[in-house]
């Protein structure tokens, strides 16, 4: 018996040490991720804590968190085994904000001034119900099957699609939602927000207020090799700055999103690892640096806040969209854009029509072409904060497709050759799990040219 107890004690000690070395350092990130997810999902999309824990936070390690919601105080807290408690507060018009212990929640803050698009037009150019349109060249039976097959049946969790919206020739031809979601549900686009950030630069460029081919306006870089990095390099994820993005571990990206007060500064402070325009690699820090640069283009914080909405978001009637901020007041342009699936499809439609929205040229055609042109060294995978199919990632989909893409399988696919926009929102990545090539193939093949 004594021998057994000694062995048991040794096992427990080893288990504790293993936990200490492998999991404990992650607790702050786990509780931070969880608190932010709960606050955003509950206060922005009115999801219950149970639904969030079963469908948003049921991720390895994240499911270790214990979460609470204070509806009266408008905040959520999360902790792991009572350790490393984090809080996320909600502010109407700004979304949820993950805060550190020393954050002053009493300090005043500004809200974006927004103008809702009200034009009495049917969706997608307005917010009234879409026209009941039938196209002779669309096989609706095949289309329905392709979409139905992208959803789980009988409570399964293999595909985990939440919403699909398909636009063809400016008309809604298909739409479906999972249980608990509908056309008014706000869903986090994660890195699809990067494409929103890019569009803000596109408007500034159209207005002649920024030259993306000039060195980035960052004074801290002027005395070293980083002074040669242009805004174009940053848009292309081709700056050469040091960065690690791996959501399965503690890395630059996770520390930025769940610990940093000033997310744009994280990438700004990184040294140059390569010369600009020689090495492409993905960096959410780069996009938040771009958001910080965008902020520097305006004289006041209010102008910066208003611009994102007045220039693009509200201009095309994405009235549901909220882009959340970091603790410094900078939009988290890498990851925190929330909108309904229908509103995400509007953004795709803007790019499908080369920057024109129902007759108004919001972005120059040249900007949309620039967006969809492969970045040097990306092997046809990436443009300017948009992903591309130019390299044939999806072999059964037209090569001219370019798309917004986000964590857990968010997608706004833009296919100019078919005059089509496809939105898929969910909580399942493509590998392993969701078959994006098969999903897209089924939809595009339902349209006869």
Tell me what you see in this structure.
With 449 residues, the chain is of the alpha+beta class. The chain has helices at residues 2-22, 27-45, 49-55, 140-148, 193-206, 231-235, 252-259, 263-268, 284-296, 301-313, 341-352, 365-371, 436-444; strands spanning 65-70, 75-80, 83-91, 95-99, 161-168, 171-177, 187-188, 322-323, 337-339, 356-357, 360-361, 387-388, 402-406, 410-415, 420-426. It contains 13 helices and 15 strands. A hairpin with a 3-residue loop joins strand 3 and strand 4 (95-99). It starts with a helix and ends in a 5-residue tail after the last helix.
The helix/strand class is alpha+beta
Discrete helix count: 13
Largest sheet, spatial ordering of strands: 6-5-15-14-13-12
Low-confidence stretches: 14-22
Q: What is the percentage of strand-forming residues?
A: 15-25%
How many DSSP E strands? 15
The coarse silhouette is globular
Radius of gyration: 22 Å
Overall pLDDT: 94
Q: How would you spell out the order of helices and strands?
A: HHHEEEEHEEEHHHHHHEEHEEHEEEEH
Report the major sheet. 6 strands, antiparallel
Between the first and last Cα atoms, what is the distance in angstroms? 78 Å
Helix content: 25-40%
């Amino acid at each position: 018996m004594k021998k057994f107890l000694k062995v048991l004690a040794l096992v427990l000690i080893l288990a504790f040490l293993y936990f200490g070395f492998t999991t404990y350092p992650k607790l702050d990130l786990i509780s931070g991720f969880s608190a932010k997810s709960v606050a955003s999902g509950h206060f922005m999309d009115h999801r219950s804590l149970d639904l969030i824990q079963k469908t948003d936070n049921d991720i390895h390690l994240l499911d270790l968190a214990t979460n609470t919601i204070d509806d009266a105080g408008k905040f959520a807290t999360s902790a792991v085994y009572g350790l490393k408690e984090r809080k996320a507060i909600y502010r109407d018009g700004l979304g949820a904000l993950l805060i550190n212990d020393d954050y002053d929640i009493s300090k005043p803050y500004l809200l974006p001034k927004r103008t809702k698009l009200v034009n009495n037009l049917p969706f997608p150019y307005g917010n009234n119900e879409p026209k009941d349109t039938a196209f002779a060249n669309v096989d609706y039976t095949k289309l329905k099957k392709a979409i139905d097959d992208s959803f789980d049946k009988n409570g399964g969790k293999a595909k985990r699609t939440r919403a699909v919206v398909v636009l063809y020739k400016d008309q809604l031809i298909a739409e479906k939602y999972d249980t608990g979601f509908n056309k008014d549900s706000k869903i986090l686009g994660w890195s699809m927000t990067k494409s929103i950030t890019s569009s803000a630069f596109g408007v500034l460029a159209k207005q002649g207020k920024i030259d993306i081919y000039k060195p980035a306006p960052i004074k801290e870089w002027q005395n070293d090799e980083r002074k040669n990095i242009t805004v174009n390099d940053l848009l292309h994820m081709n700056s050469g700055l040091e960065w690690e993005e791996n959501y399965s571990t503690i890395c630059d990206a996770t520390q930025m999103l769940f610990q940093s007060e000033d997310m744009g500064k994280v990438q700004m402070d990184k040294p140059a690892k390569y010369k600009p325009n020689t090495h492409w690699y993905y960096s959410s820090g780069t996009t938040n640096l771009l958001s910080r640069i965008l902020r520097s283009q305006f004289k006041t914080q209010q102008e910066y806040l208003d611009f994102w909405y007045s220039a693009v978001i509200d201009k095309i009637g994405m009235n549901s969209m909220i882009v959340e901020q970091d603790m410094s007041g900078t939009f988290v342009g890498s990851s925190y854009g929330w909108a309904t699936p229908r509103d995400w499809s509007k953004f795709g439609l803007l790019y499908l029509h080369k920057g024109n929205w129902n007759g108004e040229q919001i972005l120059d055609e040249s900007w949309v072409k620039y967006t969809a042109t492969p970045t040097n060294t990306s092997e046809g995978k990436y443009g300017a904060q948009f992903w591309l199919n130019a390299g044939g990632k999806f072999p059964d989909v037209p090569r001219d497709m370019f798309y917004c893409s986000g964590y857990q399988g968010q997608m706004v696919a833009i296919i100019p050759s078919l005059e089509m926009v496809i939105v898929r929102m969910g909580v399942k990545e493509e590998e392993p799990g969701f078959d994006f090539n098969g999903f897209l193939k089924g939809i595009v093949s339902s349209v006869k040219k």
